[in-house]
Design a protein that fits this description.
203 residues, alpha/beta, 6-stranded mixed sheet, two-stranded antiparallel ribbon, globular
């Protein structure tokens, strides 16, 4: 089943300054039921026995997408956020919208040989083999506060690699934010020591 909000001990961090009070009857108030109703469940994709959570049905809903971005941004209103990093490829959907909402810059984290200028790299282990992520070396300045965003927290390997990439450039990881968390894969455990936020968790 799905539940909204963040996991135990992972509430939104306290604001450095109090956010403005939301207007009553705000049309962008989001609930877990709102978001779940907009996510299509596709059985046996990409292979038999897998239940795939298809977010494209949420993205095409103009009210739903706005609600989603507002829900993510509420965790960071009143915090210093310099940059939002989106992980290739679905992080490119949510990252720029969140960055705009937070008045922050956006930085793409890409697969190898996709970025034109000098890059920093981080290689990490997969179940079978390895993978590498890259970011422009000048994308993050020392001490900048960074949010990492992606659509899905599964095993946590890619998210952890992105956090290490940020830290290799002396950036500060403010939080890792996800739309959906697959709780049974225990990805959150791999991200101990970081603030992890997910809007929907599937057991």
């Amino acid at each position: 089943g799905a539940r909204g909000g963040v996991g135990p001990g992972a509430a939104c961090p306290p604001a450095e300054r109090p956010p403005q009070a939301p207007a009553e009857e705000s049309p962008t108030t989001v609930t877990a039921d709102d978001l779940r109703a907009m996510i299509r469940e596709v059985p046996d994709f990409p292979k038999p026995g897998i239940l795939f959570y298809d977010i494209t049905t949420l993205l095409k809903d103009k009210v739903g997408f706005a609600k989603l971005i507002d829900a993510l941004s509420q965790c960071f209103i009143g915090h210093r956020v310099d940059l939002v990093l989106g992980i290739e490829a679905r992080g490119f959907i949510f990252g720029p919208a969140l960055a705009y909402r937070l008045n922050a810059g956006f930085v793409p984290v890409r697969k190898p040989k996709k970025l034109p200028a000098e890059t920093a790299k981080w290689t990490y282990d997969l179940e079978y083999g390895q993978d590498t992520l890259e970011i422009h070396k000048d994308a993050i300045q020392p001490g900048q506060s960074v949010i990492i965003v992606d659509d899905l927290l599964a095993t946590g390997g890619t998210a952890l690699a992105t956090a290490k990439l940020v830290e290799s450039l002396n950036g500060r990881v403010e939080s890792l934010a996800f739309i959906v968390e697959l709780d049974f894969l225990k990805g959150r455990a791999k991200l101990q020591g970081y603030q992890v936020i997910s809007l929907l968790t599937f057991d």
